[in-house]
Amino acid sequence: MRINGMRYVKELSNRNKIVSESTCDAIYEQQNDAYTIKFVFSGAEDCEINKRRFSIYPDTFAVVNAGTNFCSKIDSINPVNTFSVSFGEHFFSDFHHTLSASHENLLDGKEVKSRPAFTESLYPFTGDMRFNVQHLKNQLDKGLKDEMLINEYMYHCLLNYYKIYDREVVQKLDKLSFIKTKTREEVLKRLTLAKEYISSNYNQNITLENIAEQACLSVNHLLRTFKEAYEISPYQFLMQLRLNRAKRLLQTTSYSLNEIVGLVGFECPSSFIRLFKNTFNITPLKYKKSKLN
C-alpha cells in the first residue's frame, strides 16, 4: 500500500471500520477481510476486483466481499476524496440474519447464516444512501466519537444498500423475459459488466460493439436485454451519465464550459448545450451561475 495525502481510520470496538482519505497518489493491493462499501466524493478511484476493472465516481459506490482480492489506484492532479465503511463479521451477520428472516428474496433469495455474497459491482450513490453517508462523513470530520451513533449510521448504510440491491438486482431480474432463473442471473451479470464499462469509460469514444464485447453479448442481444432490464438503451444510459456528470462539474468546479464538454466525452458544445437544456430545462451557464449564487 502506498499513500501520499491525508488519511484517518476509525475502528470501533465491534470491528466496524471507517477510512477517509484525500490524496492525489495512492496504490492499494490487499485481500479485503471484511464486507466493505467504497465511496468517492470527488475525483475517481480506479479499481480491480476479481480481474474486473472499473472506476468509482461520486455518483456510484462499489461493494467488496470479505475475502476478495482488491486493488485500487489514484493518480490525479486534484485530490481525490474517498470514503469506505467496513463491517465487522458479527455486526454484519446479525444484521443479515435479522433482515433476511423477513425478506427471503434479498441477496441470494435464501436465509443464510454463513457469509452471504454481495454482488460486487457499481451501484447508484443517490437518495437515502448518499444522505446517510454524507452525514456520517460530516460528523466524523467534526470529531464524532460516539460509537453508538456511528454504529447507527453503519446500520442505515447496510439497510440502504439492501434496498438498492433489491431495486438494482432483484427487480431487474424479474424484468428479464427468460424463463430459467440461472439464465436471467447470467444475463444480468453480463449487463452489469456493460454498465460498469460505460460508467468507467463514459468520456471515451465507445461504441455498441465495445460494450457488447465487454459483456460477452451480441449487439442485438445487448440492446434487447439492456432495454428490458433498465428501460433505456445503452446509448440513453451513456447520455444520462455524461449529462449528470457534467452537471456535477458545473456545480463543483471552476472548469470552463468548453473544458467540461471535453471532460465528459462530448465533441460538440452546441449539441451538449441543447441536450443539457432539454434534459434539465436550463442552459449549462445559467445552471452554473445559479449554483455560484
UniProtKB/TrEMBL annotation:
It comes from Pedobacter jeongneungensis. Pfam families: HTH_18 (PF12833). Transmembrane segments: none annotated. Keywords: DNA-binding, Transcription, Transcription regulation. InterPro entries: Homeodomain-like_sf, HTH_AraC. The keyword Transcription applies. Residues 192-290 form the HTH araC/xylS-type domain. This is HTH araC/xylS-type domain-containing protein. SUPFAM superfamilies: Homeodomain-like.
